[in-house]
Write a structure and sequence with these properties.
- The complex is a heterodimer of chains A (about 450) and B (about 550).
- Chain A has about 450 residues and is of the alpha+beta class.
- Chain A contains twelve helices and 15 strands.
- Chain B is mostly helical and about 550 residues long.
- Chain B has 31 helices and six strands.
- In chain B, the strands form two sheets. In chain B, strands 4-5-6 form a three-stranded mixed beta sheet. Chain B has a two-stranded parallel sheet with strand order 2-3.
- Chain B is elongated and about 125 Å long.
- The chains are: A alpha+beta (about 450), B mainly alpha (about 550).
- Chains A and B meet through helix 1, helix 2, helix 5, helix 8 and helix 11 of A and helix 2, helix 4, strand 1, helix 5 and helix 9 of B.
């Protein structure tokens, strides 16, 4: 018999709040027929009557989880899949010995696809491993020419950026607002052509920096200066010869040159029981970005797992805040190692144990160490023990003992923080960022005392 | 532009970046803002640490460009400032909220509430909040900000939010002015005073509680009565009426000519409490008031004094118009409507028929009969004409006048909120007039729960009655017999009255008892799966299931 999920687990899969509501509406047994749940293979299926003549076929592969539905919705999972899972979670789906034929054929085709993708990744991982051991690309001449072309393009773009930045400072930042967003967008577009999308993304944000009110020239200068540093560093490394792939990984990351997943997965595994302590979704340039923060229970090492989806699609929901996953993590290369991919799993998912935090002083220390290794580090996650939000002097502070740092970028979620803490100091997961800290989630002790309940803000 | 080590540093106001790390930064920003065309940063005068590092990382004159130089300095200073962030001295924290007396609702219930808060219907939200308040369950702290926001947007729900918010919710609301206002929570005594004044300004006579408090503190000197604001005077008079009805009436009567015309009806209404025959002379005097609403209040009060000349006149007029005749062995009603409108009728608040009457509602005789019957106290009829309202209403005869009689009695029954009369009127065929059908739901509301459960199913069998108002007036959730009748009705009438069926199914989803979801689902099964009827019934069943789940989660 397939172990049922809780409704909470199911709802964490929903791409947005309206999907939750729609899924709930469809979680009544009366709208479903041909229901079944099978343990081996782990799959749940059913037929849902919609507005049309033919009912929709919805099936969920619980091993993934992966979803299939014949409805035209572009949301993922769609409301039918959510409704089906909610019904199953509530015990409304009968157990079956084997999947219905259409569900089985979907599972088969999916298994085939997954196997093909895995074989591809495996092949690449092996190739990378053998390259390190002395092997080389299939066509070394063509590969070299490609790398050279790319290097030239990047070097050209970065030189242009440097000149543009100097021009801004030469004529004075006071002129910046008059240029408006379009001025930044034009340079950003140029950087996309030069294959440095990381730079383009920073440039596109500058319009909002200019519009950020009092003190904006200082903040704009900070951004300009760090971009200038990035451009100069990137260009000097490319000019020094060697192909673009040889650029130090930290620079490549900030320039926005992606590292292939296979390459990351080929890096050494860090095995631990990873407590999922925070999750934040943001929409950046029409792309949904999910950040999930993990912490090794043995190593106390922090990790950040990012996933991306076109707006409206479901983000990776395998890492639920408030769970603990025994698994391998593979960290992205770079001088500061935070971003990671999840590799092989090593046992059942459980609840995180007690999380020990530190004071603000050690949080600041970790932050300055990260900056020392990578000056472009945007933020550093820390677990702060005995934290309490306090309003004072017209702004919010995160206090810990007799120390305090300003809360920045918190928006309305500061009230959730205040409500959850309820005037009592509590552990929180926070990110140290320029100018202060931003709380990601509250880490409350669970009912049994040796567990942690994660309340995302 | 030169940079001084001891230059002004914007971080003096206990900012996160201390003085030492900020030194020189403002000058760098000023130079950049102005443009290096107009002046450069004197790097040699930067703080020692920065200058040293600058020498290491960005040697001077790399390409002799002042702008590049400034950007190098700024980059170094930016990282230096960011990495050098210091903590400030913690301000004192807020006081903790009091210990909760209620317990938190289940996690499933919290998730349900979270879903309802992000785009749920108010009806389910009301059900959740009302049930939680009743069972002493709390929402999770993480949902409080959204609940309080809801209270600021929706005044109807604000009271419910206040009743479930718990100690922590009130504590949280006290930290934000808009939340505090929405929940009626106040942080200081000054604000309590303000809230009181605000109360008086709204001019709402129903906000009696706070006002009564004021009256009690008024020391009985009559200071408030002579000089107070209208609301305070009203409250004071109410309080006096409660303690000494006669004194209150005499006081009111003594100052009556001086009372502002627009306050008179509200003041007169105070006599409603503790009404006795001793009030009659004053009320009779008020029947001659220039304002219609004052005369109406006086007439209402006089009608409630059976011994008053007014009530006796009204009863006599009604009994002159309607009598019971004996025909062989049968008793039946006979009607002799008032001939014409006259001064006497006008003096007793019977309005004259308008010159142009809607022909469907009858002529001037019908008009006068309706108003005369409606104006009579209900007890004029019983036992004068019949032992019980049911027997009177059930009598035959009076052909052509029955609708008018029914409507007149229905008006009186609603005015006197009489359950027995309501039951009697609903027990006979309801006239096919707009007034009568409109009266039905109000009459249902007057019935005792037992009568409601008994009579609503019967009313449903009346093919001409609009169902939705009838069902809407029935208690929610529907008593078993009503639920049975609705299911039966839906099964039988679905094909003939598709429009009503849809509306009734919609209502069924909201009012059907939560243990009847399966019956609705079974009903859906009677129609083909693609049909509209099937989908409507299934939707209603799903809705009932949702309500059931919601309530079960709140155990």
């Amino acid at each position: 018999v397939l172990t049922r999920w809780s409704a909470e687990q199911v709802l964490a899969l929903a791409p947005d709040a309206s999907s939750v509501a729609a899924g709930r509406k469809l979680s009544a047994g009366s709208t479903w027929s041909g229901l079944g749940a099978c343990a081996q293979p782990a799959v749940v299926w059913g037929l849902c009557r919609g507005s049309g003549k033919t009912p929709y076929r919805a099936a969920v592969d619980m091993a993934g989880p992966a979803f299939s539905c014949s409805c035209p919705s572009r949301k993922f999972p769609c409301k039918h899949a959510l409704g089906l899972l909610l019904l199953w979670a509530a015990g409304g789906v009968p157990d079956a010995g084997e999947p219905v034929d259409w569900a089985q054929s979907w599972l088969d085709s999916r298994a085939e696809r997954v196997a093909r993708a895995q074989a591809r990744v495996q092949a690449r991982v092996e190739k990378i491993a053998t390259k390190d051991a002395g092997g080389g690309p299939a066509d070394p001449v063509a590969a070299l020419r490609r790398a050279e072309r790319r290097r030239d393009r990047m070097a050209g773009g970065l030189a242009e950026l440097e000149q543009w930045l100097r021009d801004q400072v030469r004529t004075g930042l006071a002129a910046a607002p008059r240029g408006g967003y379009t001025a930044f967008d034009a340079v950003a577009a140029r950087m996309v052509d030069a294959q440095v999308p990381g730079v383009a993304a920073v440039l596109r944000r500058l319009g909002s920096v200019v519009a950020s009110g009092e003190g904006w020239p200082g903040r704009l200068l900070e951004e300009y200066a760090l971009l200038h540093l990035l451009a100069a560093a990137g260009r000097s490394v490319t000019a020094a010869g060697g192909d673009a792939d040889g650029l130090p990984a930290t620079l490549l990351t900030h320039l926005g040159v992606g590292v292939a997943k296979e390459e990351v997965l080929a890096r050494p595994a860090v095995r631990d029981r990873w407590a999922v302590l925070g999750l934040r979704d943001e929409v950046e340039e029409r792309l949904s970005v999910r950040r999930v923060w993990l912490r090794g229970e043995r190593s106390a090492r922090m990790a950040l797992v990012m996933s991306f989806a076109v707006a409206g699609q479901s983000l990776d929901a395998t890492l639920l805040p408030g769970s603990a996953v025994p698994a391998d993590l593979h960290f992205y290369p770079g001088r500061v190692q935070l971003r990671a991919l999840v590799g092989a799993g090593h046992g059942p998912v459980g609840r995180p144990g007690q999380v020990t935090g530190a004071g603000l002083e050690s949080a600041l220390q970790a932050w300055s160490q990260a900056l020392a290794r990578d000056p472009w580090t945007p933020g550093w996650p820390v677990v702060v023990a005995d934290a309490l939000p306090v309003s004072h002097g017209g702004r919010w502070w995160l206090t810990c003992g007799d120390e305090a740092l300003p809360l920045v970028g918190q928006g309305e979620s500061v009230w959730t923080l205040v409500a959850v803490c309820g005037g009592r100091a509590t552990s929180v997961l926070a990110e140290v960022v320029p100018g202060g800290v931003r709380v990601i989630s509250v880490l409350a002790p669970g009912p049994s005392g040796d567990e942690t309940v994660v309340v995302p803000l | 532009v030169s940079v001084g080590v001891s230059g002004t540093d914007g971080g003096a106001d206990a900012g996160p970046t201390g003085r030492a790390t900020s030194a020189g930064w403002d000058e760098v920003v000023a130079a950049a803002l102005l443009g290096t065309e107009r002046g450069a940063v004197d790097v040699d005068r930067l703080p020692l640490v920065l200058a040293e590092q600058l020498g290491r990382f960005a040697p001077a004159g790399r390409d002799g460009d002042a702008a590049a130089r400034l950007l190098d300095v700024a980059a170094l200073a930016t990282v230096y400032r960011r990495a050098g962030m210091r903590s400030a001295v913690a301000p004192a924290g807020p006081r903790e909220p009091a210990t909760e007396r209620a317990r938190p609702a289940s996690e499933a219930a919290q998730q349900r509430l979270a879903g309802l808060l992000s785009g749920g219907e108010n009806e389910l939200l009301t059900l959740w909040l009302g049930t939680a308040a009743e069972r002493g369950l709390l929402p999770a702290p993480r949902l409080l900000p959204r609940l309080l926001d809801l209270a600021t947007r929706n005044r109807a729900l604000a009271e419910l939010v206040a009743s479930v918010a718990g100690e922590r919710g009130r504590w949280l609301a006290g930290q934000r002015e808009d939340w505090a206002r929405a929940l009626g929570v106040t942080a200081s005594d000054d604000m309590t005073g303000n809230a009181d004044t605000g109360n008086a300004d709204t001019g709402n006579a129903d906000t009696g509680n706070a006002d009564t408090g004021n009256a009690e503190t008024a020391d009985g000197e009559g200071e408030v009565w002579r000089l107070g604001a209208p609301d305070r005077r009203l409250a004071w008079l109410r309080e006096l009426r409660r303690r000494d009805p006669g004194a209150a009436r005499d006081l009111l009567a003594a100052g009556w000519p001086a009372e502002a015309p627009d306050q008179r009806s509200r003041l007169l209404q105070v006599l409603d409490d503790g009404l006795t025959d001793a009030d009659e002379p004053f009320l009779q005097r008020c029947l001659g008031d220039r304002r219609g609403e004052v005369r109406a209040v006086a007439a209402e009060l006089l009608r409630r004094l059976p011994g008053s000349a007014f009530a006796r006149r009204a009863a006599a007029r009604a009994l002159a118009a309607v009598r019971v005749e004996r025909h062989l062995l049968r008793r039946q009603l006979a009607v002799d409507p008032p001939r014409r409108h006259d001064k006497e009728l006008a003096a007793d608040q019977i309005p004259a028929p308008p010159s142009r009457l809607d022909p469907r509602t009858g002529g001037p005789a019908s008009w006068l009969l309706l108003h005369v019957v409606a104006a009579a106290p209900l007890q004029a009829w019983i036992p004068a004409l019949a032992p019980t309202p049911s027997e009177l209403v059930g009598l035959g005869g009076a052909d052509g006048w029955r609708d008018v009689l029914w409507q007149g009695w229905a008006r009186a029954a609603r005015r006197e909120r009489d359950a027995g009369w309501a039951a009697a009127l609903l027990g006979v065929a309801v006239p096919r007039t707009p007034e009568a059908t409109a009266a039905v739901s109000e009459l249902i509301g007057l019935l005792t729960p037992t009568d409601q459960a008994r009579q609503v199913p019967v009313l449903l069998t009346d093919p001409k009655l609009p169902l939705v108002p009838v069902l809407d007036a029935a208690p929610a959730p529907w008593p078993g017999p009503v639920a049975d009748a609705v299911l039966d009705w839906l099964a039988r009438h679905a094909s003939q009255r598709p429009h009503d069926v849809q509306a009734v199914m919609e209502l069924a989803g909201r009012r059907m008892p939560i243990d009847r979801a399966d019956d609705l689902a079974a009903l859906a099964g009677r129609w083909p799966p693609d049909s509209l009827l099937h989908r409507r019934a299934a939707a209603a069943a799903a809705r009932v299931t949702t309500r059931r789940d919601l309530l079960e989660e709140l155990l």
